[in-house]
Amino acid sequence: MAPPIEHFHPEELEARVQYKTDGRYRKGGVDLEKCKLMEMVQYDCWPERRGSGSVVKCKPLVRLFRKCANGLTVETTSWEYLESRW
Fold first, then answer.
1. What domain of life does the native source organism fall in (predicted)?
2. Do the domain assignments include residue 5?
3. Measured on CA atoms in the order 51, 54, 60, 65, is the torsion positive or negative?
């Protein structure tokens, strides 16, 4: 089982990525705006009917990431949405 993940508001993302998982500060810091924006599409699928002849329906879920030069990759889907509203 994966360890529990702490939830936080997207506004905190820029401050949170400045630190590694062990609590140490990332040398040189991270500017998410300068990291390459990438996209991945996942699908949420469910059976529409049960039994014979059932149809599986799927809807796309777009996930956005920032890939930084230091190897750090951060999901920024909510953060990008929040930034686009300003």
1. Eukaryota
2. no
3. positive
| Domain around 42 | 13-18+28-84
CB 13 within 8 A of CB 35: no
The residue among 84, 86, 66, 85 whose CA lies nearest residue 75 is 66
Q: What is the model's pLDDT at position 40? A: 96
Question: CB neighbours of 47 closer than 8 A, spacing ≥ 6?
Answer: 54, 55, 56, 57
What's the domain count of the chain?
1
Q: Give the tens place of pLDDT for each residue, 6-42.
A: 888 989 999 999 998 898 999 888 999 999 999 999 9
Q: pTM of the predicted model, to two decimals?
A: 0.74
Domain membership flag for residue 72: yes
Residue 25: CA atoms inside 13 Å, Cβ hemisphere, count?
Answer: 4
